[in-house]
Amino acid sequence: MSTAEMLRQEGAILARQKAVLDALEIRFSRVPEHLRNTIEAIHDESRLRSLLQTAIQASSLDDFAGSL
Question: Which of 33, 43, 45, 68 is the most exposed place for a label (fewest CB within 10 A)?
Answer without folding.
Answer: 33
